[in-house]
Every structure is written in C-alpha cells, then in structure tokens.
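User: Please predict the structure of the protein below. I'd like the answer in structure-token form so I can feed it into my own downstream comparison script.

Assistant: Understood. Taking the following sequence of 481 residues as input:
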Amino acid sequence: MTTLHYLKYVHTDSQYQLIINSVEKNIMKKNLLKQLSRVLMIIAVMLVGPLAFTGCDIDDNINNSPNAINESNVKSAVGVNGLMISLQVATADFYSGDRSRIAAMWTRQMCAPEGLGRPQPVSWNSYGMQTDGFVDDMWKIGYRGVRIANDIINFAPEVEFGAENDKLQNSYLGIAKTYKALLLGELAAFYGSIPTTIVGLEPPQFVSQADAYAEVQRLLESAATHFANSAAINSDLNFKGDGVVWTKVVHSLRARYYLHVKNYAEALNHARLGIDAASGTLLGIYNDAAGEYSPWGHWALTEVGEPIRVERTFMDLLHAEENDGRIAMYFQPNSEGNFVGFAFFNTEGASDEELDPTMSSRRLKYAAYADDFPLISFEENILIRAEAAARSGAPGEATNDLNAIRNAAGLGNYSGTDLVGEILLQKHLQLFLEGQNYTDMRRTGSLPSAQIPVRFIYPITEKNANPNVPPDNDNLMNAIL
C-alpha cells in the first residue's frame, strides 16, 4: 500500500468535484465501462491529495482508507481508463475557459459592457490581472491536466490490458503525450517560462520558453511513434484510439507550435501532413448535464445578461465584405434585426445601437451548454499551412488554402496584394473565440493596443508553493516575440 504523491499547487476541492462530475457524465454519455465509476474517487483523491471524507462508500479493493490510495489498483486497465477521461475533461476546460475568454477580449473579438452582469469581466477590458484571478485558475487547470497525463504515461507501461496489450498501451501513451504537449504548449504561449518536468513533491524548475516549446515537439514526436502501432480504446471521446487520425492531429499541433516560434518551414511540413477533414478536428466534449456545461455556454446561458458581448471591431471586420455567412453562424440579430457589436474600444462614429449594450448581438457560436469546443481543427490546420506556405515561397499553395476558407464563408477568391495579412485576418475571423489570434498578434506585432499584456503573470498558488518562480518579465516570452 502506498499513497500517491500529488502536486499541492494544482488543486481546489470544488474544481475537482466538477471534474469528477464531468467524468461521470461523459462515461454515461459515451456508454463506457461501468467500472470507471469506481475509479473516479481514486482520481479525485490522487489529484487533490489527503482529504477527510465522511459518508463515502469506497470499494475496499480500490481503497483501504480515504487517505491511503492503493496504487496497484490505479495501475489497472480500469484506472488508466478513468485517468484518460479526466485528462480530456481537464484539457477541454483549460483550452476553452479563461484562456479563450481573455484572449478574445484582448484581441477585440469580445468585450464586457458595464451593467450587463457581474463586474468581474469588466476589469478584463482594461487588461487587469491579479495573481489570484484567472491567471491562477488557468495555471491550476493546466497543470492538473499535465499531472493526469504524467500518471497515464507512468502507469500505462505497467498495466496489462489483455488482448493487443502492446497496441493498447501505445494508444494510451500516444494520447496522453499529445494532450500533455498541448497543455504545455499553451502554458508556454501565455506565461513564457514554465516547468516541464515535475518529480514528486520537489518544487519544479522553470525552463525557458524556447526549451518548453522544444519539449512540446519532443512529446509530439514521441506520440506519433505510439500511434504507428496502436489499437482502439473506448475512453477516447474523439477518435476511439484511431492512430491514423491521431497522427494527423499530432502533425497539426506540431505545425501550430512551430508557427508560434516562427519556424515556418517546419510548420509547413507538418501542416501538409496534418488534419485533412473536418472529422479530424480534436474537440473538448460537453453536454447539457449540470456541471458538464461548456465554459462559453455557461457565460451565455447561466450568467445573467450574458456579460461578455461581441465588440464592434470584430463585427465590423465581418461586415467588411458582403455575404460573409459567418455573421449569422456566430451571432443572433438584435431586436431590430441587425447584427451589431458594442462600441467599447472604439466609439468614434458609432451608431446609437453600437453604443447601447442591450442592442449588441448575442452569441450563437459555442453558446449552448453542450457545444463542443475545438482544441485543434481542420480549419486551423489549413490556415497554418496557408501562412507558412506564403512565408516559405509557395504563394500558389497559400492562396488555394486561403480561398478554401473564404469560399466556405461565402466570400469570393482573394485578389489583393497582402497575402499574409489576408490569411491572418481570415484566421482571426474563422477561429473566433479559440484563442490562437492572441499568439498570432503578438508574433506579428499587431496587437490592437500597446497596453495589452504580452503574457499572463505568474499565479499566487505557484508563487506560494515554489521558490523557483522567476520574476514576471516580458523577456520570458523570448521564443514568441
């Protein structure tokens, strides 16, 4: 009997209960193994650390006491399956939560007019950051996902999965390494220098942003080797362990993170091998059950008045060309039948409708509780390939990819002279709310205001637990800027 170690800087009880609720709902939704329900309590305790449970009915075969987890039972097919579900939940909430919300506001896609709901998001308009605010939440959820991925990576090689054992081990290892790479890639993109190696309870060291991106690429390269000899698993909510599809996801993620660091040649090479159909988009999965709402659906339907609304700048970009079908896909018309953005950042020449927050259009995109959220999509891969091709001396390929996005939106072929600029514009419009526009704007020096921070500050939970946290400094973004 051993007690699993845990990371004290990546847990809160209420957030873990949400993860456990999410796991339960996804298991029922996907008709996965009934035995996973017994593992959920293990996962909660394993991640949160010692808790004092009362009135809990925990299977003795799994747990002899609430504070002493039987590690051998976690290292089982059922245990690893439960971890896989939890990893998908944590990654989805990380990618589509505060990371997405703040990036959308700082890049003028969304804003928070006063008087529509709670005041918290209003401060985000002016780039307010507190160490115990969203920077803390995003860090904790991100490293919670990293911890779960590490457990799968460490445990799966020791588990006997029965028939096709080696291939099943490869499926779990490949998927876990892919999600871990995504989590670390986005943490590096938003914070700069981050920990990438965590051993026991030792305070982890921070590596440079460049080294963090290198670790992301190493993980993805390793994941691809696993997918070359893998088997189907039901706990993969997206592709059921299909190694061919996952390999394309890996290439698209490699392309994304090479793009982040301006390695356009490698970004192009991997994007050409990346996701080649909408069915290959990697999604964060949500549903209508309480506690299983998508983050953006929660803000649209649960928050009184939907306090975050489309900003005039973004709506004007969509209106710049006639027949852009994304307007009606993304938003509802207001009571006058118009599609209107609130003029928060730019009031010059604004109409009465644009100055009235109650007249701004409400969201349709990702506005339902059960709306799944893309973690890496077919469309993003096309646009990465287009930009990388344009910057690598292949304007014909770039134009073809650009026109595929434009035509799907109802627009004609591009005939202008700023090919890269148009690709970045279409990416800004096409990947609405997905957060990659923030990285693009920093990389290209096109943030809409010099006041917008180029990174998140380090959170209070990490500062309290880890003496190795470096001082906050924009130079920590040296691989992107």
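That's the full token string. The chain has 20 helices and six strands.
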